[in-house]
Amino acid sequence: MMGAGKSTVGRLVAAHLGWPFVDTDAEVERSVGMPVAEIFAARGEAGFRTAEAAVTASVLAGPARSVVSVGGGAVLDPGTRTAVRGAGTVVWLRARPDTLARRVGKGRNRPLLSDDGDGPAAALTRIDGQRRALYGELAAEVIDVDDLSPDAVARRVLTVVGATTEDRG
Fold this sequence. Notes:
Radius of gyration: 16 Å
Structural class: mainly alpha
CATH topology: Rossmann fold
Strand order of the largest sheet: 1-2
Number of helices: 8
Low-confidence stretches: 164-169
Shape: globular
Largest sheet: 2 strands, parallel
Strand content: 5-15%
CATH class: Alpha Beta
């Protein structure tokens, strides 16, 4: 989910492992040539999800080991779920909707939050309800991140993937 810390923690884990870090939202922006919010405005959510599915499949099919932050809504696509499931160890950084709302603030540049008249907290609760079971279905491990620092979450992820402080590469 947005605000769970996927990008921050992913970068920390990748740096520790000496692997590349890939954020699929950033890759979609690069591929399409505009920010996510503009893609939503120009093509709607369906247009964004189509681009997201193609980019995510391409990233996950790559031969190099990497740490990948997959966009929170990517799980809505069955093909993307299949690709994620087969790509490696999936760790769900789970946070309560109130934690997510605190982290994303007013939801600027987050199209799924900006269109919700009830505010980001209500939108995040609704989105969480739609996606929670799908995240659980894919996750090899779940880390509750509400009360943890990014460094603490990264250490737990490294434990899940079997990395020690001496491991690199």
